[in-house]
């Protein structure tokens, strides 16, 4: 089963290295390529329902001191337009208001 099939809801990249250290793209690609799928799910992304995302992002905000996120709604281009819009709606109507 593909990662997309297992996690069809919004995927949010939580790579805190983008704003804390100046890594070259090559160095970052090498670091990321050495991570297992489970490590990526545990440390780099958040996905799921609105309430699940809120909980996960609050947890990561406390643990990592996150001040923002980058949302990738359709990584790999595997979602339909309607699925992508559903993900955007979850983020804008459920998740974002919880952090205002």
List keywords for this structure.
single chain, 3-stranded antiparallel beta sheet, mainly alpha, 100 residues, 54% helix, 3 strands, disordered N terminus
Folded structure, characterized:
Helix content is 54%, strand content 9%. It is mainly α. It has one domain. Strands 2-1-3 form a three-stranded antiparallel sheet. α5 crosses α6 (81-95). The longest helix is centred in the middle third of the chain and has 15 residues, at 50-64. It is globular and about 35 Å long.
How do you describe this structure in short?
This protein is mainly alpha-helical.
Instruction: Tell me about the largest β-sheet.
Output: 3 strands, antiparallel
- C-alpha-based Rg, rounded: 14 Å
Question: How many distinct domains?
Answer: 1
Secondary-structure element order, N to C = HEHHHEHEH
* Count of helix runs: 6
Strand order of the largest sheet: 2-1-3
Give a topology summary.
Layout: H1 3-6, E1 11-13, H2 17-20, H3 25-33, H4 37-43, E2 45-47, H5 50-64, E3 70-72, H6 81-95
Antiparallel strand pairs: 1-2, 1-3
Helix pairs in contact: 5-6
């Amino acid at each position: 089963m593909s990662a997309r099939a297992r996690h069809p809801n919004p995927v949010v990249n939580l790579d805190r290295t983008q704003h804390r250290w100046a890594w070259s793209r090559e160095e970052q690609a090498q670091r990321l390529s050495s991570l297992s799928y489970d490590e990526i799910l545990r440390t780099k992304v958040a996905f799921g329902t609105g309430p699940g995302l809120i909980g996960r992002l609050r947890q990561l905000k406390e643990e990592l001191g996150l001040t923002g996120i980058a949302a990738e709604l359709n990584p790999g281009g595997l979602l339909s337009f309607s699925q992508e819009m559903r993900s955007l709606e979850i983020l804008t109507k459920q998740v974002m208001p919880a952090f205002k």
